[in-house]
Amino acid sequence: MSATVEPTVTPTTATSSLRRRALGVAAAVLACLAIWGIGEVAGVDYTIESPGQPAVVVGPGEIIGITLGAALLGWAALALLERFVPRVARLVWISLAVLVTVLSFGPLFGIEATAGARVALGAMHVAVAVALIALLPTRRR
């Protein structure tokens, strides 16, 4: 008869993980706002035109909403992986995060935008990935 030993999660560990992940989401949002702000000061025109759609000016509200949504979806995906495949959750989630980041560059090629806007938006995609990959998964022990 073999007994499975479940890892214990103390309230301190859970609170620490929650804080770390919330910090990751906040860092992603703040990094994107900083990149947007630097571009704004440098005179980047953030007007984006998608085929068949009216032009949109990407501002702080859009940055916060999109980044927050993506970061929270990433957190939810990680939580699901940790629940259902805990042994490989970290590896699978990081692999998915990198894949999603690479795929997120696709729409940048299908829009009409200035070079400065494309560079700034691409930098935001990378900043989100870096913040989330660094802070969402639990550290290996």
Mean pLDDT: 92
**Low-pLDDT regions:** none
What summary fits the major beta sheet? 2 strands, antiparallel
**Adjacency order of strands in the biggest sheet:** 1-2
The structure class reads mainly alpha
Number of strands: 2
- Terminal Cα span: 28 Å
**Helicity level:** 55-70%
Q: Topology as H/E string?
A: HEEHHHH
> Helix count?
5
Our Rg estimate from Cα atoms comes to: 18 Å
- Relative strand content: under 5%
Question: Globular, elongated, flat, extended or rod-shaped: what is the shape?
Answer: elongated
Provide the descriptors you would attach to this structure in a database record.
about 140 residues, mainly alpha, 2 strands
Written description of the protein model:
With about 140 residues, the chain is mainly alpha-helical. The protein is built from five helices and two strands; from the N terminus they run αββαααα. A two-stranded antiparallel sheet has the order 1-2. The longest helix has about 30 residues, at about 10-40. The radius of gyration is 18 Å and the shape is elongated. The two termini are about 30 Å apart.
